[in-house]
Design a protein that fits this description.
By secondary structure, this protein is an alpha/beta fold. The protein contains 14 helices and 17 strands. The chain starts with a strand and ends with a helix.
Amino acid sequence: MIVEVINTGSELLLGNVTNTHLNYLGQELFQLGLRIARQVTVPDGDAIRDALSESLSRADLILVTGGLGPTTDDITREITAELLHLPLIEDPAVWEAIQARFSRRGLEMTPRNRRQAHVPKGATVLQNPFGTAPGLYIRHASQGAVRHIFLLPGPPRELKPMFETLVAPILKDLTPAGPKIQSRRWLVVGLGESKVESLVGEQLLAIPGLELGYCARPGAVEVRGIGSAETLAAAEAVMTAALPTQIAGEGGESLEAVVVHRLIALGKKLATAESCTGGALANKITNVPGASDAFLAGFVTYSNEAKTRDLAVPAPLIAEHGAVSAPVARAMAEGALRATNADFALSTTGIAGPGGGTPEKPVGTVFIALAIRGAETRSEKHTYPTDRATFKELTAQTALDMLRGVIG
């Protein structure tokens, strides 16, 4: 089936609201064996007519989000009925549900709320327990072609439960039975996009039926494969043989999630001591659900005084080697280990820029240390001459991968 998505709403194009619908619908549809061929975002008003008319000329399945509310800019329902030459008829059950919702919440209705009970003749109403705008499903046959059109509410809190409980079952009946195409993603760390492609590209392209893609991220590359189970098994063999230590995770799992889940499985605890990253490392770790089972504490010791006060880094050590140095990075990690009684501690100290660099330690220089209970502390020097935000991201990513290399 050719699938197209139309997201409506001027607020999306103005940047006032982030459009999360494509991300959500793309993932949900793929699980049903469907892929979005085209997506367009249009403002409120007549632009909806042009977009829907174009999709009706070629798509088998069309999902439209937004424009089902009671205000004058909510005209998705009316435009759809017009293009399909269907009269709008008030649905008594929908009108009753709208009135009941207002009554329960003690809100006053306006005459325009009644518009939301208007349904194109023959459409299936998709109940919306989280809002006043019901969704609509229209199966439209014209000139030998059948179009399946879903009109869905714009707010994600309304769209998602409606899709999962009402839309997905309909789509399952529309899609043929049998094996579905699958997707697999490998997160490769420590290598650039061109390097990863040079190591696996030709071998992967030689696998029949494999759709291949690369997505570069700071400090990592995501390799994406789409195909049958057999095709992806062949791709897996190529990836693991060529990149035995660089693959940090699969299935879209982030490096921090890989590390946290491994720590939990091992029953080990982690602490962090950050200077140049300013808490970015701890932030990545605590973004993982369940991180509290592995993460004890994070210290942000930006000044030399804080390093000495909170992590017991000797002031003479800082004076001798400088705050940005391997000895200080190791002392920071060891201080965090002592303070928290953790099993591992990561530290970062560097020069994020744009100023502060020297010929010996240019902007972008960073030292990362890993203290391990009962073992020798390790440290690494890296140089990331980029903007501050990317510098922090690369440093945090490298620190996490340093720990991953130890815990497997």
